[in-house]
Design goal:
The chain is an all-alpha fold and 151 residues long. The protein is 85% helix and 0% strand.
Length: 151
């Protein structure tokens, strides 16, 4: 079960990045024909980010203490002291942006609408921060792997 949860966290995160990226592209050329799609993508992005948060939070509370001990005794203790600590704080910004995206997408997005520009910026920031989170997660995972090796 723990391996499934560990896999589910980054998979949900990547799906959220993909939906936010798709929403970003759609907002570049918004018309009446794709406005509904942007709203659906925005909803999906928010849902996926929240699911990522819940699954990752569960992993952190239930399983991460053992990994943390391995990381801190290994050759990459900074993968916890920097990457994990930073990820824990940046993620809340990502969560807020993803939650705001469907709210702004409910407005009229056609033409030169300010809501269209805000939706574009918010979805772009979700993609950027999501990629940062994925990279930080990879560094944390490497810290666990290196810490588990005999040294």
């Amino acid at each position: 079960m723990s391996n499934l949860i560990l896999l589910l966290h980054p998979v949900l995160g990547m799906l959220a990045i993909l939906t936010a990226g798709w929403a970003f592209v759609e907002t570049r050329h918004t018309e009446a024909t794709n406005e509904k799609r942007i709203k659906c993508l925005s909803d999906a992005t928010a849902l996926l980010v929240w699911l990522t948060y819940i699954v990752g939070g569960y992993w952190y509370v239930v399983y991460f203490a053992a990994d943390k001990a391995v990381i801190l005794k290994g050759p990459w203790p900074f993968s916890h002291t920097y990457f994990m600590e930073t990820k824990e704080h940046y993620f809340f910004v990502l969560l807020l942006l993803a939650t705001y995206l469907p709210i702004v997408a409910r407005d009229d997005l056609t033409g030169k609408s300010p809501a269209r520009h805000v939706a574009g910026w918010v979805s772009g920031l979700v993609v950027l921060l999501g990629l940062v989170m994925e990279g930080y997660g990879a560094c944390i995972g490497m810290g666990v792997k290196l810490g588990a090796l005999p040294h």
